[in-house]
Amino acid sequence: MASDEPKAKKLKLSEDEKTQSPSKKAAPELRPNLLFGMGNPLLDISAVVDKDFLDKYSLKPNDQILAEDKHKALFDELTKKFNVEYHAGGATQNSVKIAQWMIQEPHKVGTFFGCIGKDKFGEILKKKAEEAHVDAHYYEQDEEPTGTCAACITGDNRSLVANLAAANCYKKEKHLDLEENWKLVEKAKVYYIAGFFLTVSLESILKVAKHASEKNKLFCMNLSAPFICQFFKDNLMQVMPYIDVLFGNETEATAFAKEQDFETKDIKEIAKKAQALPKVNTKRQRIVVFTQGKDETIMVLGDKIETFPVLKIDPKDIVDTNGAGDAFVGGFLSGLVQDKPLDQCVRAAHYSANVIIRRAGCTFPEKPDFK
């Protein structure tokens, strides 16, 4: 089957390479603040649960949702009834950390903005960001506690319930617009914001996206969850013209296609249609990258579709798929920041995801073993 062959094919960007490659120079000198991320910093409360627990709170085994009133008791019950682990989380923050881990040196190549509370969980997030050598600049407020995300694991599925709390309080004028913070934004050349942040601060996203577009820098975004494609599609489509690299998985791609009336469930076709949506910065063609769990990853650039088989893994080695998508993006971003060819970005992405699913939470060993 043709789809199994592309390992042999180098992704050639031909004449487009000059405009597609994130920079025209040879491999860049890595420096702090080259990669900028903004999103919802959350403390993950992770536990292996049973089907009864999922049913009690009407959770699907593999999903991401925002907590509603009916989920309030879930967080307490999770910590009392199951063996929980705490991990610094939040999709964008995870991806920035993984990118930094893949890069290793120098420290603080990755910058992260988001909102936390002035509390114990907030202190944990600050400490974890520092340990990961990420340059985190949090907007700290005391009206809401630091956000949490319950990761309810059954087998190799994870159901995520996010209680945004403080993360929902991010304010453009109180943080992003401050001169010292905006300078950090300007220092970056690759930007990544998960779709989850569309529920929090569209104006912050648009300010960063427009800056990237005007300066011909790379702006990347993730569909993140079916509910983003469904209930926040207006916000998503306001940002879409600025997106240079769009990430998503097959479930999100299908939900996106349905909402956009693409009239197809074929993931390759959906990727092509998403790639062809209007774009402000015409110096760069949009790149669309859709993962499909253990099945091949699809990448569309122009009219070219590439498929990449994922690294094989024995199902019994899978500890926790929570964070696999974030890790994939983090690996990809580490390649983009270093101006690597796109096929190498995918290779780095597959490697990162493969490491993360062998561990609990979005955690990683001290150093990557990636050549």
TrEMBL record:
CDD domains cross-referenced by the UniProt entry: adenosine_kinase
Annotated active site: 326 (proton acceptor)
Domain of life: Eukaryota
Gene3D superfamilies referenced in this protein's UniProt entry, alphabetically: 3.30.1110.10, 3.40.1190.20
Stretch list, region Disordered: 1-30
Broad class of where this protein is predominantly found: nucleus
GO biological process, any: AMP salvage
Subcellular location: Nucleus
A Pfam family that the UniProt record links to this protein: PfkB
SUPFAM superfamilies named among the record's database cross-references: Ribokinase-like
An example Gene Ontology CC term for this record: cytosol
Cofactor: how bound: Binds 3 Mg(2+) ions per subunit.
Carbohydrate kinase PfkB domain mapped to chain residues: 54-365
Entry keyword Transferase: yes
Cofactor(s), by name: Mg(2+)
EC number: 2.7.1.20
Biased composition (Basic and acidic residues): 1-19
Catalytic activities: adenosine + ATP = AMP + ADP + H(+)
Record family assignment: Belongs to the carbohydrate kinase PfkB family.
Quaternary context: Monomer.
Function: ATP dependent phosphorylation of adenosine and other related nucleoside analogs to monophosphate derivatives.
Protein name listed in UniProt: Adenosine kinase
Lineage: Eukaryota, Metazoa, Chordata, Craniata, Vertebrata
